[in-house]
Structures are given as structure tokens and as C-alpha cells.
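Human:
Take a look at this sequence-structure pair and walk me through the C-alpha cells.
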Amino acid sequence: MTSYSLTVIVPVYNEEGCLTRFCEAMDAFLAASPVPTTVLFVNDGSTDSSLAQIREICHHKAGYSYISLDRNHGLSTAVKAGIDTADTTHIGYIDSDLQTSPMDFLLFFPFIGEYAMVNGIRAKRKDTFVKKLSSKIANGFRRRMINDGIQDTGCPLKIMDAAYAKRIPFFDGMHRFLGALIQLQGGKVKQLPVQHFERFAGYSKYHLFNRLWGPLNDTFAFRWMRKRYINYGIAEHFENQPVTNGHL
């Protein structure tokens, strides 16, 4: 059996029009990846044919697997479920809507030894004016409130050290703060420009209200949690040997 080093988590919610093309793009990356890589679909309660397509893909393609949640829980839960399931040293994340390219993961590999997380910055975004404006407002507010230095927290292209990823304190909306949550643990974050494309098919699951209110509300939740976050290191540890039959 192949011993994988990287698991790429792919949350899916009603993306039946994208999955075939997405796998073509992912296959090209898997062939070029310098480390053994596996793909983990996380079906987040899709109501279209996405789950049926995922099953078909995973039954016929080596290196693909999936989990399916009992209902639609939202992106943060899907990402957490993927992180909990992955058993590799590094964990990647990409959306299945083809607005980012799996091939841009190749830009990340030179940095994953030095940094706990490598995060993409979507260059020349191909989104609608409303989407770009709402993201700009939400990102600007978040940076001013928490000062984490992450330029594009919503970019769905990331690779994380699994040891850090599995210690992230998860809450609804945490996918917007992955970089800041890595930094809370003392991990460094590298940011790199990546390509961005128009959505290939389907529709965005976010609208103006949840693009603005959700991030603003979650920012206050993060500030509250950051003040109470526990992070420590053990400088020294001594443990006595057990006593057996009256002898050490």
C-alpha cells in the first residue's frame, strides 16, 4: 500500500457540474506532486448527484477516498471532518469549484518544511463586483480587528502541517481564520500568489449577507477565544520507573 505524505481535503456541497473537470485537474497535480498525495472528498450533505459521482470516482481512481456527512453542516465542519480523518504529515485544502488550480500546490512545496501553513493569495480575482467588494470589506475588518497579517483568508488553497491542523480549536466559521489559528500555536504562515478563475459550473453558496455578517460576527468570536486560548510548551519532564515486586 502507498504511504501518503499529503492529504488534500475537498469539501463538496452540490457541485455535480464541476467534479469531472475537477478530477482531471487534480489528476494532473497528483502526477506532478513531489510527495505521495491522496485526495479526500468530504461530501457535506449534497442534495444533487455529487455523492453518486464521488462514489464512482473513488471506486475507479487510486488515491481518491471520501467521507459523507449525515447532513449539510457547513464549510467549517466539512474542513474539520477532513482534518480529523486525514492521517498524513501534511493536509491540503482546495474547493471543487475550479476557481483555483491544484497545480498551484506545486508552488507551496519549497516552504512546507519551514512554515506550519502555506496560504494562497488569489491574484486578479475573477469574481463578481459584489463578491469582490464584500470580501474586501470583510477581510479589511478582520485584519484591523485581529492583525494577523493574512491577506486572503478566504483563499481555498492551503497546505498545513498536520500537527498544527489537528490542534486547531474549531468553531463554526473557523475556516475564515485558519492562518490566525495556526499563528496562535506559534506556527509561521507563508503567503503566495495563486491563479484565480471564473466558476466553471454551479453557483456560489455564499451571498452578500453571509459574506459580510458571517465574517464580522466570527471575528468577534475569534477575539474572545484568542484572549482565553491556552498554549504552552514543556521544558522538562521526568517520570519515575514503576515499582515491580518491591524492586525498581
Remarks:
- The CA atoms of residues 38 and 114 lie 22 Å apart.
